[in-house]
Design a protein that fits this description.
By secondary structure, the chain is mostly beta strands. The chain has four helices and 40 strands. A hairpin with an 8-residue loop joins strand 1 and strand 2.
């Protein structure tokens, strides 16, 4: 059973380490209180089961510390775990950590340096879970202070996520949350996140070596900004999940977005541009569904390029989230680079001047083997714009429209 901190029958040892935790004690001070036990319930008249041994752990990890399987499971009584001061928290394979409703484990808390090495095995995963059946906890948070060498592998994170009101502005957290993690600091592989609020993995402005991930029974899978989506280099495993979320923002360096078994709902405008003239590649099978009036812009104020690499069997799909709420389409603007190419893409459900609009000042654009339907206009090509169009299907009321130069002057 899980140790309860409320109600009758609380033990003196438990109260001792809870008082220490609330007084801001470090993990070392709490562990000095020792492990505690509470008998497991049994049917009336039956022999009582052996007690479950639970080790307390809470507060700041400000020096190197190892949590052993021998003392597992560990119960976090309140206040969360913050790994700071350059310390390393190591979790042995088979360790289980339990948390309460407002608590989380934060690596590199507040940008201070910290490291976690949590290497489970297929037979003995490390488990981060809840300590109270009535609530969810906030999850594992890798902050900007995460130090190189941090690892989370062969692990399970269960029933976590929520609104972290201690952060300003408030931070929505999933089972795993990454904010500002620097390149080379963190590796995540063979991790399962289950029954998550606000996403299985939330990631913003982070660079991470991301391997196999399973997302189970969660309203959202990935919740990512454009700067982080390129770190997802393979498909996750999904069960009981129907979509991912892609937030609005800028792709300012080369990126490659791979498909998932569920679509990305795009909740903002995406743009591809920057001083380095970035190129965004959309890989065959990718499914992006845009919220009303949002779209994809390439080369608006700085150079950028778009390459859509669908296939006949696995086209890239660009569409609206809702049939009655059209999106804004793809805009290939003045600084869209030559070499921008859309191949085997399906574009549906857009409003406005064109599902794809090509600026007269853009470099040469190619659209080939693509299908357009359900749009106000499929493709609008500006006066003297350089478009190569091959083997496309235009099924909307207005298909491929080339703007006359006289009409452009009047506008």
């Amino acid at each position: 059973m899980l140790l309860s901190l409320a109600g009758p029958g609380r033990e003196t040892a438990a109260l001792d380490w809870i008082r220490l935790a609330r007084a801001g004690a470090t993990v070392a001070a709490l562990l000095s209180a020792g492990c505690i036990s509470k008998p497991k319930p049994s049917e009336e008249g039956a022999a009582q089961k052996p007690p479950e041994r639970v080790c307390p752990v809470a507060g700041r990890v400000d020096h190197d510390l190892t949590l052993t399987k021998a003392c597992s499971p560990y119960l976090q009584p309140g206040g969360g775990i913050d790994i700071i001061n350059g310390a390393t928290l190591t979790l042995e394979a088979g360790v289980e950590l339990r948390f309460f409703g407002q608590d989380w484990l934060e690596v590199g808390a507040g940008g201070e340096p910290g490291r976690m090495i949590a290497k489970g095995t297929p037979d003995e995963p490390i488990v981060f879970t809840f300590g109270d059946a009535e609530t969810k906890w906030r999850g594992v948070w890798f902050h900007s202070g995460t130090l190189e060498g941090s690892v989370l592998s062969h692990a399970v994170v269960r029933r976590a996520g929520g609104d972290n009101q201690h952060s300003q502005p408030h931070l929505l957290m999933g089972c795993l949350t990454l904010t500002g993690v620097k390149p080379g600091a963190l590796s995540i592989d063979a991790v399962s996140v289950e029954n998550c609020v606000n996403g299985g993995l939330r990631m913003s402005n982070s660079r991470v070596r991301l391997g196999a991930l399973s997302i189970v029974d969660s309203a959202q899978g990935f919740v990512l900004d454009p700067a982080s989506l390129g770190e997802v280099t393979q498909g996750a495993q999904y069960r009981g999940v129907d979509h991912n979320v892609l937030l609005g923002g800028v792709v300012s360096s080369d990126a490659r977005w791979v498909p998932q078994a569920v679509p990305y709902l795009v909740d903002g405008d995406l743009s591809v541009e920057g001083p380095s003239a970035p190129s965004l590649t959309l890989v065959a099978g990718l499914d992006l569904r845009f919220a009303k009036s949002h779209g994809l812009r390439v080369g608006e104020t700085q150079p950028g390029a778009l390459r859509v690499e669908g296939t006949a069997q696995a086209p890239v799909k660009l569409s609206a989230q809702q049939a009655d709420e059209p999106w804004d389409g793809v805009r290939l603007l003045d600084q869209a680079r030559a070499g921008t190419r859309l191949s085997h893409v399906e574009v549906t459900g857009s409003a406005g001047e064109g599902a794809v609009r090509v600026s007269p000042k853009a470099g040469q654009i190619e659209i080939a083997n693509s299908r357009f339907s359900g749009n106000a206009t499929d493709v609008l090509v500006g006066c003297r714009a350089r478009l190569v169009s091959e083997k496309n299907q235009y099924a909307s009321q207005r298909g491929l429209v080339r703007e006359s130069c006289s009409a452009a002057k009047k506008r």
